[in-house]
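pipeline/complex-builder :: batch 7 item 3
reading input block
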Amino acid sequence: MGETLFLKRKVSEDYSHYDFPILKKVIKMRREDVIAEIKASGLKGRGGAGFPTGLKWELALKEPGDEKYIICNADEGEPGTFKDRFLLENTPLQVMEGIIIAGYAIGANKGYIYIRGEYAKAINIFQDAINHAKEEKLIGDSILDSDFSFDLQLVKGGGAYVCGDETSLINSIEGNRGISRITPPYPIQNGLYGKPSVVNNVETLTAAAEILAQGGKTYANLGTDKSKGTKLVCLSGDVKEPGVYEVEFGAMTLREIIDEFGKGTTGELKFVIPGGVSTAILTDDQLDIPYTYEDIANVGSGLGSGAVVVVSEGHDLLELLQNVSRFFMDETCGTCFPCREGNRRVYHLLKEAVNKGGFTSDDMKLIKDIGKTIYLAARCGLGQTSMCFIGSVLEKYTDELLARR
Amino acid sequence: MINVTIDGQKLQVPEGTTILNAAKMAHIKIPTLCYSEELSIYGGCRICVVEVENERLLQPSCAVAVKEGMVVKTHTPKVREVRKTIFELMIASHDLGCKLNCLTCSRGDNCDLQRLAQELGIREIRLNALDKNMSNDYSSYSIVREPNKCISCHRCVRRCEEIQGIGIFTKANRGPAAVITTFKNKGMGNLECVNCGQCIHACPTGALHEVYHYENVWDALHDPTKHVVVQTAPAVRVALAEAFGEKPGRIFTEQMVAALKRLGFDKVFDTDFSADLTIMEEGTELLGRIQNGGTLPMLTSCSPGWIKFIEHFYPEFLDNISSCKSPQQMLGALVKSYYAEKNNIPKEDIVVVSIMPCTAKKYEARRPEMTGDVDYALTTRELAMMIKEVGIDVLNLEGEDYDKLMGSSSGAAVIFGATGGVMEAALRTVYEILTGEELPGIDFTPVRGIEGIKEAEVKVGDLTLKAAVAHGLSNVRRLMNMIRDGKEYHFIEMMACPGGCIGGGGQPIPTDMEVVKKRMEAIYESDLAHGYRKSHENPEVQQLYDEYLGKPGSHKAHKLLHTHYTPRGL
Amino acid sequence: MNDGRMMEKLHNIQTTYGYIPENEIEKLADEYAMSKTKVYGVISFYSMFHTEPTGKYLIRICNSLSCHLNRSDDVVTGVQEYLGVESGETTEDKKYTLEIVECLGHCGEGPVMMVNDKIYTHVSKAAALKILKECM
């Protein structure tokens, strides 16, 4: 089974003469009809949270006020995730088209794309694309002879994973520390500069554009009842052919993705992280499930951002735990106590365990208690999911970890 | 109104009420730490989390508003466990451990963390302390910061920014390196910190406290060659008793004087005396400026936090500040001249100690242009420590009077301690000097109370005197901007701390608006109890002018009682 | 005036000077009506901004999970030994600043390393040292 090309349909095309055919069509539609099309497609946010995109747009459109913002979240930073970079580098104009369409749909005349600062190549490509679009008057006043005006600004991130959280990202655009905001109010009501704002992931907006090209129904016919359409999967770790692959939901199992796209593992498979380091691991016996939101949730994990990281035997489990723990410790914004102190403490406990050659059951209990506390009490999604990987490894490899002493 | 159920109790609360406040209405106190009624919601510590029916995660009660039909449970097993784990994590980041720092901590007897530990029923800490290995900040004359004790609750950051409008602190970095610090960690003494000490009141731990000078005072008291004179500010007398467990609002003047005598001070004078003197000098200066076309509005100069504030933020207005030294400095200067000469004591042998509600007074005493007037400025808290160390049962002590020469005062002087007090005292005297009549309604209420900016107009003969009062530096900033934008006044009283000196950074902990209001009531009660209500009626002030200074604004008065200011910028 | 350009300005200053000097922080504070302390708080939040000078070449090596699985540790230790500095430090000759960083978004091509804006993929220890030596 090969890739289902929907998002990647036009990847190899030459974009130099691309003139926003989808936007041309959309800008003649009523805003409500645009949103209805997205709703019909069943598209969900592809950044990790999975909120229905059409509903988000609809809520934003209904918010009172003339000043609204569409923000494209390109602050991709979860280890194992590189699909947004792929889209930015390969289909920048379609990403942009998605942004403008979303802006049109919700009634926003200003858009931002927040690209992580380390993506130097993507930033250059996208800035060129913006300049090109401005020259072609595809961005600016009364675009395509409509009464819709739209400006788009690129913001370079400063190197902080937490800015992938939508409220943190908004703070960052405003020139603040990229810490999460207390929700509610959600950005839809009170976002950038206190105005109604929609934050959508790169993949989401790209899909939205293509949905409007091919129709919501076409998209909805792909995938399963609860997971419609396709998803970009970032395959990395111990696989022979890592990369970005487009998968129709439900059409393949996790194992098939690894075996057919990844051409198998480089060693004996130990476990798979199905949605980036913010999700729980799945062991070998759990991989024969269709790749859908619901099937992965059923086995206690999530498909998160679409990062499938394959881990084979031969790695030191404690080192892997420490590696992921360090990531969250380094990347917590430092605002809420459970996440800041909790992740720091877990890292130290793991480091001590490495130093003393293994775990005690007391250590394990402590880490689990801290994990539970972070999950229940942290302020934003980063914290709440920070212990998913570690918790699941501890749970599934308890004996192996305890036996090291 | 919103219907909500908290721990099984049904109640109706106004829309927008937080779960925390709704619980309070149901007589349930949810434990808090980073929350402060006077500051913006931070939502960082998560100690106040509760369970809300149908919510997957716990909710921070300080930050979440109740919704119709919400069912809240404040102490389920999940909540209790999570709170305890958060507490363990927090306390392990607080430099506890082998250093026994509770014993030597400035907040050993009123620590929020200890209180919280009791409220949460903490009986074990399973985590070792993490050594953050940061160095203490001793750069300031007034305030010490011990960052290893900091738990990053952001209360100092918010208080400095929101109440004082300065923002000397920030959270810097991210992740494990996230710390509360100053600009590039330069130290409070090297920046635009005004030394007001409001951050100390904000801090739940001992991470912030005044620079202690009481050891130096002990040394002086035990040095037989030194003649040690102490003075006490108006606001100290209505707050000191709190440090001994009394409720706010007790007037404690005479017992305080008695305790000071027992501590071994050779003379106990009253800063109220020099407050009256300030009115004489400042009133004269004001009249001179009005009559001779001098720079107006004239701004008061008693609050050293405010003085440093204007030097940093509005240096172009330095000519507007009264040239009068503050009462602390005036009294110090007179002890080392008037008193020294009268009693034939070499001024080198005299040590002047002041007891102040203020941390900025420590800095003021060290200002080069006034060096030597006051040797040590102690806070109200430091005096309490000294009294405790000696074991004086101050609450039951027979009261005593201030020493003669500079111990008498008017009711106008004692109200210096509250916002609006200097203005009211000045009006009482200026009005009478200009018109020969008593200020109608001597209790001048328009400038009283805790409103941030207060304005009043008083008809004085042909002149309509326009006055304004601001307290808390963010209000001061607003008023300064109004002046900059052209608003006209004759006379303005500025106080750095909310509520005036009674809310000073050196006052007993806790100091919040509720406490300040009680102290304010006591101040005005004390005013009424005074035999004299007006500064110019103070007989010892009259004697000082007769015997020593001549008249207000004289050359000698200028030499001893006036000063100048330094533009500092940012 | 909040124009959403604070990050852009910080990047430009960082690129121009190799760090964000104090007088530039003061200018930004004026422009955005923030205290300079607050601006400092913002700057220090982001890994890509520095308030002290960095070396001519900023070397970033990813050590997040996918790269780790592909033995990025070898590259990290190799480069640390070669340069004689730890993460966050600058060599004495001010030529190199080394940063061991989290995910750089090339997880399918690890280990990865960045020299200033240029990305190198599938980096071995030997390749990393060669890249460093070629920095002139």
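note: Chain A is about 45% helix and 10% strand.
queue -> next item
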